[in-house]
Specification:
- The chain is mainly α.
- The protein has 2 domains: 214 residues, no CATH class; 70 residues, no CATH class.
- It contains 13 helices and no strands.
- Helix 1 packs across helix 2 and helix 7 runs antiparallel to helix 8.
- The longest helix is centred in the middle third of the chain and has 31 residues.
Length: 298
Amino acid sequence: MLALFLISYAAIPLDTLINFGEAFRQFAINFSPNVFYVFGSAYWLEAILLLFYVRSLIYKDFSFKKSDCLYLLPFVLYLIYEANNWYILDIETKIAILNGYHLESEPFYTRFINLFRECFRTFCGLLCLFELRHYQKQIKNNFADIEEVDLTWLKILIIVFLIIRVQAVLVTLGYMTSIDLHFTINYNVIGQLSNFMVMFLISFLIFFSLGVSNLFHGIVSSTLTNQEKQLIEPSKISALVLYMQEHKPYLNHLLTLDNLAKQTLMPPRQLSQVINRHFDKNFFEFINTYRIDESRFY
C-alpha cells in the first residue's frame, strides 16, 4: 500500500512537469500527446491510497469492503471525462490544442473540477486524521503496555499532508480568483512552497516508515459477528478469571490482547467484549488492575 501511494504521488509532479514545464512540455508533445493527462489520474488516487495505508497500519484485519469503492468513484469519473474529452480526439487535433494552450483560456468548469479534486484530497486527509483519533481511543482495549506504541510519526505525516492539500486548495482558489475575478494573487509562490514541502514529506515518509514502523501496533476491529456474540458465555468469564489467577500473564510487560487471546483460546474480539462488558474496563485497565494487586504483596 505504501509503494502504491509513493508511485501515485510521484506521478503528480510528473504530470505538472509535462503540462507546465516549458522545455519538457514541448518534448512531451513531440513524443506523444497521449501522455498528457495520464498522470493526472494520480491526483484522484494518492489520497485514497494514503487512507488505505493508514487503515492497514491501524487494523490487523484490514481488508477492502464494497463501500470502499465509493472512494474510487471520482477516479472513475475522471477517466470517463478524459476519455470523452481528450482520448477520442485524433493526434493532429491534440497537438493543435496543446500548442495553443493557455491556463487562462481553460473553461470555468475545468477549474471547478480542479477545486473539487483538491477538496476531495483534503477530505481524505481528514479521514486519515479521524482514523488515527479512533485508534488512540481504542488502543487501551488492545494493549497493556501503551508506552511502546509511537503515534507521533504517523500523526505528523498526516498533518503535513493535510497542510499540503490545504495549500493546493488555496493555489486553486488563487488562480480561479485571478482569472475569473481579475483579483491578482501570487499563487505561483504558494505552489512553489507546496513543492518544497512535498520533497520534505516524501523523505520524511520513507525514513519514518522504514525506521520506526515496527513501533506501530495494529488493533483488531471491535465489531463482533452474530456468531461471536452468541459464544460469549459465563464459563468464558470464569475461565478467564481462573487463568489470570493461576498463570499470571499480566507479569509479562509485553502482553497484548492477541497474546492473551491465544493463551485463553478465545478470539481476540470476543475476549475484548468479555473484558469490556463484564469487567467494565478496557484491556489496559483490566491488566493493570491485576498488576496493582500483585504489587501489594511485595
